[in-house]
Amino acid sequence: MLLDKNSKSLSEYPIGFFDSGVGGLTVMRELIQVLPHENVIYFGDTAHLPYGNKSPSAIVEYSLNSAHFLAAQGCKLILIACHTACAYALESVQAALPIPVLGVKEVGVRDLKAATKTNRIAVLGTAATIASAVFQNLLKSYQLFPIACPLFVPLVEEGFQDHEVSKKIAEHYLLPLKNTGIDALLLGCTHYPLLAPIIQEIVGASVQLIEPSRSVAFATKDLLEKKNLLRQTGMPTYRFCVSDNPEKFRHLAKIFFPYSVDKVQLV
Amino acid sequence: MLLDKNSKSLSEYPIGFFDSGVGGLTVMRELIQVLPHENVIYFGDTAHLPYGNKSPSAIVEYSLNSAHFLAAQGCKLILIACHTACAYALESVQAALPIPVLGVKEVGVRDLKAATKTNRIAVLGTAATIASAVFQNLLKSYQLFPIACPLFVPLVEEGFQDHEVSKKIAEHYLLPLKNTGIDALLLGCTHYPLLAPIIQEIVGASVQLIEPSRSVAFATKDLLEKKNLLRQTGMPTYRFCVSDNPEKFRHLAKIFFPYSVDKVQLV
Question: Which chain B residue's Cα is nearest to A152?
């Protein structure tokens, strides 16, 4: 990109987020706290949600399309705010784009390693994320208990996060963790922080829940600083785009995001 | 279509089914009972499942693509085995294709009308089906209670159909039916027959559950007879195609379908 006196500084360009739907807003929420001046474009690939029950090749294709859309909007950095997309497509997206691309998985793995003392840990994720074995491969020297929790996303999206059935379903999923002696558990899906109180109650206070969004925000800050791309002052602008059903996105955003999402653009 | 002595009889051509996933297999199961000699191609548009939380325009687009795929395979008749697709796209698909296209909604409505004596009835469906108001429009002279049950599909697909949480969630959804005096209830989604025992228990024995699959099979038989397209003898062939994740389809098919689904083709 060529810059002259009239062009805006590269730091003014937005950070691009993508997820299959609204879940990535839990990551954006943290980013806003850590980087309050950054402009953001959030893309929810709602025409293809949920990624969690699609095939590997479909997830790679959808992720590349989402990332290309964000790159075409002039993003200075892309954040894949979806564990399923990261599991299958982080490297493909990084290879396909000339701008930095960050995901949620390495940071989550780093925090998990830092938290455990017993080296016995658990990872919860969508069916696709767990089937990818990405965490199993990144955590080979640990005793890892990976658990697919496919009903958590629909439960959260239907507003059941505080309902007794969510606790029953969580108990069903987390039963294999009983007596394993784990001391750290990664919430490996951006929807799961909304079920954190229930999960914590079931696994007990001795297990530290790792929710990587805050660490992802700090990793993003570090990278922007290193590349001299940090936007340090001024009011930010946030733009929300989806590939289907903007009304539903706007409605669901309220569950995930404390700020108003007034305008959602269908692209 | 031109026929000469060497071409096969039109009755040999298959019936085409489509649904966003496996749900339509509950309709195919009934059709096989009523029409045991018919060849069938089943298409699950799994790249876009579930239709139930997509926008109207997306549902129409996906349905047209699915129907065109089946027409291109030489189907003599298409059956839209998905209430959400029927709610939004039945007329568009009928207008777009030169072959007969049947849906599940009119038959369901007819059975519902025949069953009720109090004229107080309920319809359960996906969020999109209920939002379409299709049943509200077809049943204007009845006191209708339409209820969206968005968690029923994931519960069934995750094997929770006999689990206590499905009963709790069904109780939550069906609470508004208490003291309404309904005497008939349409299972307006092809997944819901698997939850029929739970639903029946909650609404009570005085409410007749309408599951239109069997009636759809007879309506198909009538139409084929009228058009002289019935295949009356011989072993049938069944072909299963999907737009994503054939392995998952094969696995899920076991819940819905008592026959073996060995080969699933990705198209």
Answer: B154
In a domain, B245, yes or no: yes
State the alpha helices, DSSP H only, in A80-208.
83-96, 105-115, 127-132, 134-138, 152-157, 164-174, 196-203
Q: What pLDDT is stored for residue A53 in this prediction?
A: 86
- Separation in Å, CA of A9 to nearest CA in chain B: 38
Q: What is the mean pLDDT of residues A73-87?
A: 97
For residue A95, give the CATH number of its domain.
Answer: 3.40.50.1860
**pLDDT > 70 fraction of chain B, expressed in percent and rounded:** 97
Question: B1 in a domain, yes or no?
Answer: no
Based on the residue annotation, tell me whether A82 is a catalytic residue of this protein.
yes
Give residue-wise pLDDT tens across range B4-21: 444 578 999 999 999 999
Asked if A120 and A205 sit in the same domain, the reply is yes
Q: In what order do the strands lie in the sheet with A40-44?
A: A101-102, A77-80, A15-19, A40-44, A238-242, A264-266
3-state secondary structure of A123: strand
Measure CB to CB from residue B169 to each of A46, A165, A244 and give the nearest one.
A165
In a domain, A5, yes or no: no
Residues A154 and A170 in one domain: yes
Catalytic choice (A75, A86, A149, A189): A189
The catalytically annotated residue of A82, A86, A149, A241 is A82
**Which residue from B minimizes the CA distance to A54?**
B245
Q: Which ipTM was obtained for this model?
A: 0.88
Distance between CA atoms of B213 and B208, rounded to whole angstroms?
Answer: 15
Looking at beta carbons, which residues of chain A come within 8 Å of B249? Answer: none
**What's the total number of domains in chain B?**
2
Average pLDDT, chain B: 95
Give the nearest chain A residue to B150 (CA atoms): A158
Q: Is residue A232 part of a domain?
A: yes
Cα distance from A224 to chain B (closest Cα, Å)? 36
pTM of this structure: 0.91
Q: Which of A186, A211, A236 delimits the end of a domain?
A: A211
Pick from A32, B46, A115, B130: nearest CA to B122: B130
Residue owning tokens 């692209």: A267
Domain that holds residue B247: 11-104+214-266
- Please judge whether B48 and A47 are an interchain contact, meaning their C-beta atoms are less than 8 angstroms apart: yes
Single out the residue in B191, B211, B231 at which a domain terminates: B211
CA distance A41 to A15: 6
Length of chain B, in residues? 267
Q: Is B149 a catalytic residue?
A: no
The one-letter amino acid code at B250 reads R
Catalytic hit among B82, B86, B149, B241: B82
